[in-house]
Amino acid sequence: MAVHRVRISKDQASLVEALTMGKESRGTFETYADVVMFAAAYGGKYQKLIPLDNGISQDPAPISLEIFISRGYDWPIKLLAIALSGNTHIISPYDWEAQTQRVAILEQAANGGLQLLEEELRGAVDYSDRLLLLLNKERFGTSEEITEFDLTRFL
Known about the structure:
The chain has helices at residues 13-19, 32-45, 65-70, 74-85, 96-121, 127-140; strands spanning 5-6, 63-64. It is mainly α. The relative contact order is 0.18. This is DNA phosphorothioation-associated protein 4.
């Protein structure tokens, strides 16, 4: 049996490369696996699962599942799969089909998260600052909107 590989949509390849530290970019994340995991968590939070219908990117190439495991993402992938599928048997280490389903959920959540991130990061010069603002907004939430300015509180 071959090792599973996590694929990236051809549409999102340039964003993944821009978010990764490299020669041409000063991205936020060290590896493509880090970007994919962040995007999958973000897409999973908003239940945005998008299948890879528009083709698979060749650069960056599909990432071996072993890379994710070596970076400590094994359990986050399993928890994401449980949360999005509702199936607790999906974390079985002995079931090859369960691992295939986990990888498919990871790919779809990452694709959805990358689309959300693309909308959030549109027009940004430095992605690191925009990502920090995004994380702060997620952590602290937004304050209630005031529809009118109330002058009575100054009396």
